[in-house]
Write a structure and sequence with these properties.
about 475 residues; alpha+beta; 5-stranded antiparallel sheet; homodimer
């Protein structure tokens, strides 16, 4: 830990004292609490904030921003701490703004297929609230406790993005507190608008570096009439990738389309006591009518068999679907618990569909060539896949091998006209790739950051 | 015309002379040419540029921007001149940059369902090029000669947006020349990315005020397996709106959903020699399989009949569909030719679906109460509708009535949490509404504009 954080600078101490008067028990400086709010899910070292504050309203957030802005003290937005690139670390100290008490579902509007929520509402809680309406919010980043504010900030997506889009596609507006303390609602609720610059999409994915999101309005969808899930093993990972891209190219009503490679299947077999064929495996889900799902499944089966697949198993009842998808749900946990003592570096590249098979094949060969442990799980319908590198944090030579692998992986994705991060964001962990991916675009991002947050109070050391 | 434009300032004259050396015949200063490049489609007065230049490459555009930027001379991007809010006017003079010679389809990638084009490619040309691939580009703003660069700049949408989204949803990246002369490609081609700020969506809809778009990559879609079109008349306009919103709420596979009100139907009956029942009428199109289209049509028929509809006519063959949709295609032309000597002010509000019926009903009553001629056509599946106000440009008292109507219409849309412009953009014509809709958000837009275009060379007098 940086000594500067044990003895906070006078400016930070002043702001903490001022906020303590305003927030009382809703501001804490104890180390345990601060440690809970520094990144702990990744290989990145924890960097603790000097204090944590719990606002309960947009007005509270304005008060926090005004105090912090006056003395140029960093503010780090904290949702549930489920981000994977060190987004909630506090490299320059400052104050973590924890949105967990801003957890009201403000309004559900079934007729408009949208709802407005405070930033701290979790996706699980929202969907529980929606259960009786016949509607659901589809974006599913895997972390059930992820907050909608945090998901908007990182531009999250997940297993259903292939059908329903990412946060960029599903946020209609955000209410954001700017460095000036001004409150801006980025748009109204019309389904489309050409009115001025798209501030909504500028804030979505800005990772807390341009302002603090306090409320947002998101799209909802009708629960599908019928759902069929299927699991099918392939002779080769390239064949699994080709079957995936064909399903998208043919326009099947795919709502989820996930790949687990052989090491990943082996890990879930052991950890979740399953008996899956140890081969590259696709997990797919079709949403639609009974007729369309049935037809899509048969088309998919034929395509899969042409790519050397066997033993396709399908289910449409909820229990059966849950059984089939269990391996996918347990994937990350199975990997983490299979190699105790090792830490996970979850990579996140995405490439155009036509390059998916080649990008995955090259990555598998790279993993083997360097003796890495790195099971692969992928949202392959979007061309996005994660190699989960399990490394020994105490082995400095392995750390270098992992870093070099990550570099090659990102270079490969960029060579295939892809991206360093499909859904996890830049945070701290991927900053060195931003320039390689965006070139002069980084100047534009930096100009925008400088113009909207001239003192650099919002999440310093992230993205830019 | 402003005398300052007849005798261009020394700065403009210098830049024109410099560009003349570089571009020769591809730079023109004749009044007829300049007049073709000033706005002529709307009630706004034409404001001519001092010259027109035709780049043939991104490098040409860089050269133009560098010269103009050095002397702070305005540059006005010109696609096909089909925008409706004075976007191509030159209130401060300057140089129109006509992209019509940047009209190459650079690459079509059927496996990735995308293609890259130069900014001057028209949507009609692109779809003609795509015909043999089984793919199409769906965004259809009505103007066949609209260029993809212009459509991206205005964040265009249209009849198919209810199914396929607007330009904001369909542009994967743009290549843009900034005020500094730097060339930025805003993203790679992965279907999703969380890498840095969303510069693509910042440029889409920026109306040529932040940079000049020279190339773009857009999503393509498979031609639907089956299409059914239907036309159905309603007893009331509110009933037609309610049937529309129900179709969306139920998740029918609606690909187009358009409303024409009674005056609009009367106009097309006369001008296109049709014999439609003169009543509020919905034009709908379903895309999907034969089964899903048939089922959707029957669901829609039942919903429509419950709202007092009658005489639903449907067709699935191309000729039959074209016949059914003729009234919709001819709508704007029919209105314009029905009142010769009058000019059209095409309004463009959009509201959340639950408020559509009320917003349209109030607007119809408002039109009647003020004796205006204003047939309505709407992309009602998106909650977007256009009252086409036909006014006498020589009648100053009517101009005031029209202006007051437009004010009330926008206020009504905002009261219903909607937008002043669903798809036409702000341009010159709607600048006075920007603050009302966005409040402090306009400060953010102005800050971004100032940061990225400090000399204000890009399309001055628009948006901000």
């Amino acid at each position: 830990m940086n000594a500067g954080h044990i003895q906070p600078s006078e400016r930070v101490a002043t702001v903490i004292a001022e906020l303590k008067e305003l927030f009382g028990e809703r501001l804490a400086v104890g180390e345990a609490i601060r440690r809970q709010h520094a990144n702990s899910l990744t290989f990145l070292d924890a960097q603790l904030p000097d204090a944590v504050v719990w606002p309960e309203s947009t007005a509270d957030v304005v008060a926090i921003v005004r105090q912090a802005s006056a003395l140029a003290v960093p503010l780090i937005a904290f949702g549930a701490g489920t981000s994977l690139e060190g987004h909630v670390n506090a490299p320059d100290g400052g104050i973590a703004v924890d949105f967990s008490r801003m957890n009201r579902v403000l309004q559900v509007r079934p007729d408009d297929l949208d709802c407005s929520v405070e930033a701290g509402v979790t996706r699980q809680r929202l969907n529980a609230d929606l259960r009786d309406t016949g509607l659901f919010f589809p974006v599913d980043p895997g972390a059930d406790h992820a907050t909608l504010g945090g998901m908007a900030a990182t531009g999250a997506s997940g297993t259903t993005t292939v059908r329903y889009g990412s946060m960029r596609d599903n946020v209609l507006n955000v209410t954001v507190v700017l460095a000036s303390g001004e409150v801006v609602k980025t748009a109204q609720r019309a389904r489309k608008s050409s009115s001025g610059y798209d501030l909504t999409r500028l804030m979505v994915g800005s990772e807390g570096t341009l302002g603090l999101i306090t409320e947002l309005t998101v799209k909802l969808y009708g629960t599908p009439e019928h759902v069929i899930a299927a699991v099918v093993a392939f002779a080769s990972i390239a064949g699994a990738c080709r079957a995936s891209t064909q399903a998208i190219q043919l326009g099947l009503n795919v709502a989820r389309l996930e790949l687990l490679d052989t090491p990943q299947i082996r890990a879930v077999n052991i950890r979740s006591k399953l008996a899956l064929l140890e081969a590259p495996t696709l997990f797919v889900e079709f949403h639609g009518s009974l007729e369309s799902c049935t037809k899509d499944l048969e088309t998919f089966r034929a395509m899969a068999e042409a790519e050397g697949a066997q033993n396709l198993r399908a289910a449409s009842d909820e229990d059966g679907r849950r059984q089939l998808w269990k391996a996918r749900h347990d994937a990350l946990w199975a990997v983490k618990s299979s190699w105790p003592g090792r830490e996970a570096l979850v990579t996140d590249v995405a490439v155009p569909l036509s390059h998916l098979a080649a990008a995955v094949e090259e990555t598998v060969a790279d993993i083997a060539a360097h003796g890495l442990i790195a099971p692969i799980v992928g949202h392959v319908g979007d061309g996005n896949f994660h190699a989960i590198v399990m490394f020994d944090p105490h082995d400095t030579s392995e750390a270098k091998t992992v870093e070099a692998f990550l570099d090659r992986l990102v270079e490969r994705a960029l060579r295939f006209e892809g991206t360093a991060t499909g859904e996890h964001g830049i945070g701290q962990g991927k900053r060195r790739f931003l320039l390689r991916e965006h070139g002069a675009g980084v100047d534009v991002m930096r100009t925008i950051k400088q113009a909207l947050d001239p003192k650099g109070i919002f999440n310093p050391g992230k993205v830019i």
